[in-house]
UniProtKB/TrEMBL annotation:
This is ABC transporter substrate-binding protein. CDD domains: PBP2_UgpB. Its main location: periplasm. It is found in: Periplasm. It comes from the Bacteria. Keywords: Signal. Belongs to the bacterial solute-binding protein 1 family. Residues 1-24 form the signal peptide. GO terms for cellular component: periplasmic space. Pfam families: SBP_bac_8. The keyword Signal applies.
Length: 429
């Protein structure tokens, strides 16, 4: 009897010993919400990064979950957070930072920064991108797919109009003059090619910032508690946009974000203003010689809002998931990967070190437009963001669209938006 007991004990100990290596390989699951509504090249790239990271870190399994648009992704992430089962990490808009803090949904990145190497990495990002990633002395987001707004223009159309394709508009006066020369009409008098097109669905506030920034005015304070919609410089910027349509060089009414690149490809618009995130799309689909230029200046020399998404780490995720998510965010933003991501996607590489890599140096020499967004960063400002950001942004989007549709003057639209935003933000002042 004693011998049987002894053998059982030995067998149990042996089995436990054999299981130890297996236990060491058990993965930490890292659910990762990523904002893309359809499959295709970007999902394949993200899947590839996750697979590569998982192979290099066998105890961790990062699983990308494609959660729709940015707006749909934050709704899903916050819903999952309230249910107690959030993703470990998600790429969400940099402008969602205040919303995520107010919902107590995320933890500061600083909590995971322990070593000198970690601290050096955190300081390696472009300051312009950190403006929408830090507040209250803490870092809440890690820049990943970041962008600025740029001007794309059809060089062939410039030549046809007698314009120098090497000289895109440098200021508002030149932009308007060139837009008139580039606008074409058919035999019936209908416009077949507009000189300029600026989309106004989805991100109307962002495109308004593309005009307010060169006009030397910010739409919100740094704390996200006060807006300046009714500032005369903001009204002037919106009026400039509205008047382009009134003068017939820009389509009337509200213009779809998603169809603007297509209108450029189809030569319905000779110049378009949109994200540098469309750069690879334009490179692959424009069947004509095109250029990319910084946003034209006015009171100040150019300037664009930054844009795009950050990595955030969710507070209710288990600590081991949070730590693994931090390691993934750190891994994917290393210079070589940030460089390749920029080449693959068109987004701006998030650190100067990425532009010093052989891959991005070579790409920049072969394809100069890839450097325009980077070169614009010194005069870029933080993307518009406030507390109650979704509500306040909708107020501003609606006001911009009302002015473009002609249902309100620019001054009245901004006055009404200011009053409503003040009401929403009252408790944060």
């Amino acid at each position: 009897m004693q011998r049987k007991t002894f053998l059982k004990t030995v067998s149990a100990a042996a089995l436990a010993a054999c299981a130890l290596p297996a236990l060491a390989q058990i993965s930490v699951e890292v659910p990762f919400y990523y904002p893309v509504a359809v499959g295709g090249p970007i999902t394949k790239v993200i899947d590839g990064y996750a697979d590569e990271f998982n192979k290099a870190n066998p105890r961790i399994k990062v699983t990308p979950i494609y959660a729709g648009t940015y707006q749909e992704t934050i709704v899903k992430a916050l819903t999952a957070n309230k249910s107690g089962k959030p993703p470990a990490t998600s790429v969400l808009l940099s402008t969602d930072m205040f919303t995520l803090i107010d919902e107590d949904a995320i933890v500061p990145i600083d909590d995971f920064v322990k070593t000198d190497a970690d601290r050096a990495w955190l300081k390696s990002f472009y300051p312009a991108f950190m403006a929408n990633s830090q507040t209250g002395g803490k870092t809440w987001g890690i820049p990943f797919q970041r962008s600025t707004v740029v001007l794309y223009y059809n060089k062939d159309a410039f030549k046809e109009a007698g314009l120098d394709p090497a000289k895109p508009p440098a200021n508002w006066k030149e932009l308007k003059e060139m837009a008139h020369k580039l606008t074409k009409k058919d035999a019936s008098g209908n416009v077949s090619q507009y000189g300029i097109q600026i989309p106004s669905t989805g991100f109307a506030y962002w495109l308004l910032q593309t005009l307010t920034t060169p006009n030397d005015v910010l739409l919100a304070n740094e704390a996200g508690t006060q807006v300046t919609f009714d500032n005369p410089k903001v009204v002037e910027a919106l009026d400039f946009w509205v008047n382009l349509a009134k003068e017939g060089v820009h389509p009337k009414g509200v213009i779809e974000w998603g169809t603007t690149p297509k209108d450029f490809f189809e030569k319905k618009a000779a110049m378009i203003v949109t994200t540098t995130g469309n750069l690879t799309n334009v490179k692959n689909n424009a069947k004509f010689d095109f250029g990319v230029a910084p946003i034209p200046g006015n009171v100040r020399k150019g300037g664009s809002p930054t844009g795009g998404g950050n990595f955030y780490i969710f507070k209710k995720a288990p600590r081991e998931q949070q730590q693994a998510a931090f390691e993934f965010a750190k891994w994917i933003t290393q210079p070589e990967r940030a460089a390749q991501w920029s080449i693959d996607s068109g987004y701006v590489a998030v650190s100067p070190a990425a532009y010093d890599t052989p891959a991005l140096k070579k790409y920049g020499q072969e394809f100069a437009p890839a450097l325009v967004a980077r070169d614009q960063l010194p005069v870029s400002v933080a993307e518009f963001s406030t507390h109650e950001n979704q509500r306040v942004t909708k107020v501003l989007n609606d006001a911009v669209q009302a002015a473009l549709n002609g249902t309100k003057t620019s001054a009245q639209a901004m006055k009404d938006a200011q009053r409503e935003a003040d009401r929403i933000l009252r408790s944060y002042k």
